[in-house]
Amino acid sequence: MKNEIKVFAPATVSNVGCGFDIMGFAINKLGDEVKIKLISRPEIVIKSIKGDGNRLPLDPRKNTVSIAVSAMRKHLKQKDGLEINLYKKMPMGSGLGSSAASAVAGVFALNALLDNPLSNEDLLTFALEGEKITSGGIPHADNVAPCLYGGFVIVRSCNPLDVIKIPTPKKLYTTIIYPHVEVITADARRMLKKHIPLKKAVVQWGNVAGLVAGLMSENYNLIARSLHDEIIEPVRAKLIPGFHKMKETALNSGALGCSISGSGPSVFALSTSKETAEKVARSMKKVLSGMNVESSVYVSKINSRGPRVILR
User: Fold this and answer.
1) 185, 218, 248, 278: which one is catalytic?
2) pLDDT confidence of 178, banded at 50, 70, 90?
3) CATH code 3.30.70.890 for 173-301
């Protein structure tokens, strides 16, 4: 058994419009790399954090990756210590599951290094331990689960944990635009209403059911009709410059639907071809450029694989 491994874990879009806290999907290109090395000292050491991670703590008690692997190490009664190098290949605070990618990469790497003694279901539990530090102690699996499982995922319950991976339509592409503004997740959650009218809730439930059915049956018209958020998007849209104009231009450019990724500021759209997704990307970026807001744009197939070993 080798004593060192490097793993990539993908960025994710959570909520997926109407699926607040219960749906997510993984994307390509963006994500985190974690290198783990077994060491003789019985401790966890974060040796370095590179990329867009200069604000992250090296203290292993305060970093999502080390908290996740520490919980896993304790479960396995592992005596070897760990040296961790983290490379953030995605923007922090973007609404694309940055902390989830670190946690998943860590537990996936350690599991692979130890010849895979644990299932994905086990790894999910430990990755969620890392996520707790960024979510005020309340676990949310709609980033961690798609990052680990790949593709589209439904979180039916967090207590007890019940996650279902559903099929990804073959033609589906996503466009993601990340405006270079900051949205604090805790603030975005605090602004949500604690009570919603029953009429709106019924519409939301119908959209969630329709979206799941559309994804599972590759019914793109049904996906388009269902990708509407009656509850969260109207509240959080004010945090994102030009959101309504970006959404309008995305739909006019051929997107099936468009909404906020996580708590923002990133915005995602779904399309049925790469050409359409790229057209949507250009149109949304043009909106922000006209407002003098810098942004980064990504076009990707849905990542159905999840994390992968890149060096061993």
Assistant:
1) 185
2) very high
3) yes
